[in-house]
Fold:
Amino acid sequence: MQNVAKPKMHDNEVETSVGLVRRLLQSQFPQWAELPIQLVESFGTDHDIYRLGESLAARLPRIEWATAQAEKETVWLPKLAPHLPLAIPAPVAMGQAGFGYPFNWSISRWLPGADLNHADIDLVQAADDLAQFVTALRGVDVTGAPTRAPGGRGSPLDELDDVVRQSLSELDDRIGVAAATESWQQSLAASPWHHDEVWVHGDLLPGNLLAVDGRLSAVIDFGGLNVGDPACDLLAAWNVFEGASRNRYRHELGVDDDSWLRGRGWALAQAVMAMPYYWDTNEGMVQQASRAIEGILAEATER
Structure:
């Protein structure tokens, strides 16, 4: 953890600071204003997270397009939590704009643990645990679920085709663009999802998974939460798992070949869109995307 500002990753990005959080708390939630405040180090791209004392966390959007996430999580996470085998964030309060900071922000319970970028964990066991979580999430009633935007998590892959190809064109020789394009074509050719849409987390990356005592304990950052093709949540197969643990994740979820290809397409899309965008501003995200692409291309060339 550290108390220095992150580099700017987006146009029109808003800076936050410990001092800003302190002033917001003093104005809006004085009962927590004297708690220690510490910026949480992460690869996160759209929010700054500040730990407040031992049991709370403040989440401040850095960019306008992330501002609807807190309201969605406040509505839906309490409804989802009782059905899920792993902990998820528990919203506590919604803050308002102030002191030059233009967005609403949120406070939730602090979830202990290290994210999977830093935790020492048995990945085969983690594959079992995450598969149980994803299965439970898919089984929750979707009545009233938030509307998915075009290209949103769980959308048909062809809605991402233009942006994926544009991102590939920007990567030059930083990855095997021809091989990545061929892998993307394989995913596009897979049969689409023909069943009812289900809840998807949409962003099962290592930084959004927490572990305690070597065991997966919590899933965070539900900004991509909506309903769609469940293959979207297979992106963890290439971002979190490898070898035996990847195979276990697929087996425990009962994934057919077409769904696997669509999931691989989601993992590729997320990675190739992230790499050029964050190349100069988020080294951790770029390294993560690079590892995912390496695994995807190794698998695609085996076909």
